[in-house]
Design goal:
heterodimer, A: two-stranded antiparallel sheet, 5 helices, B: mainly alpha, Arc Repressor Mutant, subunit A, 2 domains, 10 helices, 77% helix
């Protein structure tokens, strides 16, 4: 194959697809910048390009003055021999009544969260302030045509803080006929890489009940913590990309409402 | 790039930054999408990069170099995202689905699929050089400067990526030719 043919094939492949950014993604950024302060540029020029004699003298005097002040301050703070330090931290006992925990139905503090309705998959999940929901823009499938084993992230609804890398995502997928729900879960949970660090067994995963539906939850194997609910032949999957954030994950899960079968 | 717009955004003008975002977002998204091979991930990376650009704009010394500076932030956001989402950066297990036409699939794979498969085996830093050079149209010297790497490193990454893609494409063409010969 000559260079021209190769370059043409690469260009055709590389330029395929649209570069249009969904307006909602841009809006979320602009909203975030309203509450995100810019970092101040505190750097000063290392030196003036040219220093006149008066400037040199002023700089010298300033250096001497700062050094002198620093010495005086240090001597002033030094404790006298045998004396006690100037500042001694003290504590005082609290005199008021002890705080008591109040039992509440809002176990995970999700009362003020905003519901997100997944139009594509039909479930509802709530999110806290500061999170931007990005709805799925394509159906779930292993991409493309099962050949590479990837799935497009755009197939999942994404809930994320713009200022952190924690995502909670959700989608639903048809479990192919001939594949059991357990096999599907195991395939999803199996860690990436050629030498998986653990082997998931869906049948041994703890049960979880959300919105009256029983499912499975996986928190100790794979790249995500994930919850699975099978409704008919559709597998609903909610997962978080930080498996250690179990409490946050449970908070999200406590708000999930699944569609009727 | 409008220097005045960059200057105003740099001094905290949010409207100027919004205009700037509308000007550069498609270009940045296009680069991220091609490196990560996933529109959803690219969208997330773009958002992270744009917020970082806003935060760090006051540190930008030369407004004329905004685009190269933005590319560098974007590429680093790609690296960071891949590190925190290992599943998308490496191979995911394939579901055990029986396909009646599986045996015929190999012969039907076209160039794009082969290029896609070969590209996904490349490291992100190799992909970044390839995309900045072939898609964004930056000369190798500019690619090296944008990424903050020596020219020789950029050249060797591009060479490796090109070799992998060419090998994949040639193998696919050989298979297609052999099949055609058999049919003839």
């Amino acid at each position: 194959m000559n260079d021209r043919l190769f370059e043409r094939a690469v260009r055709d492949w590389l330029e395929a697809g649209s570069d249009r950014v969904p307006p909602a993604a841009i809006d979320a950024v602009l909203l975030a910048t309203r509450t995100t302060p810019q970092e101040r540029d505190l750097r000063v020029p290392r030196r003036f390009k040219s220093m006149t004699m008066p400037m040199r003298m002023a700089a010298g005097i300033a250096i001497v003055a700062v050094a002198g002040l620093a010495t005086l301050t240090f001597l002033d703070r030094s404790p006298a021999p045998g004396g006690s330090p100037t500042h001694v931290p003290t504590t005082s006992p609290t005199t008021g009544p002890a705080a008591t925990a109040t039992a509440t139905d809002d176990l995970f503090g999700t009362a003020g969260w905003t519901p997100f309705v997944s139009e594509r998959y039909g479930y509802t999940i709530s999110y806290p302030k500061g999170v931007t929901p990005i709805p799925a823009s394509t159906d779930f499938s292993f991409f493309p045509q099962d050949k590479f084993g990837y799935f497009p992230t755009a197939a999942a609804d994404r809930l994320r803080f713009l200022t952190s890398r924690t995502y909670v995502m959700g989608f639903a997928a048809e479990v192919p006929s001939g594949t059991s729900a357990e096999a599907w879960i195991d395939a999803f949970v199996t860690p990436s890489g050629t030498t998986p660090t653990c082997v998931p067994v869906a049948a041994d995963m703890p049960s979880i009940v959300i919105d009256g539906r029983q499912g499975r939850i996986s928190t100790n194997c794979g790249d995500f913590a994930s919850a699975f609910f099978l409704i008919g032949r559709r597998m609903f999957v909610i997962y978080i990309n930080e498996p250690d954030e179990v409490l946050l994950f449970m908070s999200y899960l406590s708000t999930v409402q699944l569609p009727e079968g | 790039m409008d220097r005045d717009l960059v200057e105003r955004a740099r001094s905290g003008d949010q409207e100027a930054f919004a205009d700037l975002v509308h000007q550069v977002s498609s270009t940045l998204f296009g680069v991220a999408r091609r490196i990560l091979r996933d529109s959803g991930l690219a969208e997330d990376v773009l958002q992270n990069a744009l917020v970082t650009i806003w935060r760090k704009l006051p540190h930008l010394r030369d407004s004329d170099r905004f685009e190269a500076w933005a590319f560098r932030i974007l590429i680093h956001a790609c690296y960071a995202d891949a590190a925190s989402n290992r599943r998308w950066a490496s191979v995911v297990r394939i579901l055990p689905v029986d396909r009646a036409d599986a045996a015929d699939d190999f012969g039907a794979i076209d160039d794009h699929d082969e290029l896609e498969r070969a590209f996904r085996t490349l490291r992100l830093d190799q992909r970044a050089v390839f995309v900045l050079h072939h898609h964004a149209g930056l000369p190798l010297v500019a690619v090296a400067e944008t990424l903050g790497i020596p020219d020789g490193t950029a050249r060797s990454r591009l060479h490796y990526a090109t070799r992998a893609l060419r090998a994949a494409l040639e193998a696919n063409r050989d298979v297609a030719n052999a099949r055609e010969e058999r049919l003839a």
